[in-house]
Amino acid sequence: MQGKIERSREIIAEKLDLPKDIVLSVPKITIIGNDEITIENHKGIVLFDRNSIKVNTKVKVINIEGENFEILYIGDSTITISGKFRSISYEV
């Protein structure tokens, strides 16, 4: 049943040309250079240290690898991280 509701939301978003990140609460990742990342629609931080961050989302956990990480901003659904990034991937 939940899958049908999600699919219906996706179809409505496409038909009305609405942003999927807002309608479906999926993560929106904005990368500025290799030193700042903003993730919208996150569900919390799973792991944080100076070289690795894991951020939970509705879709999957996002893994960020690099060095000298620092949280610049964290809110209910948005987080901004600075540092030098090497890779960003979804956990399998």
Automatic annotation (TrEMBL):
InterPro entries: Spore_YabP/YqfC, Spore_YqfC. This is Sporulation protein YqfC. The lineage of its organism: unclassified sequences, metagenomes, ecological metagenomes.
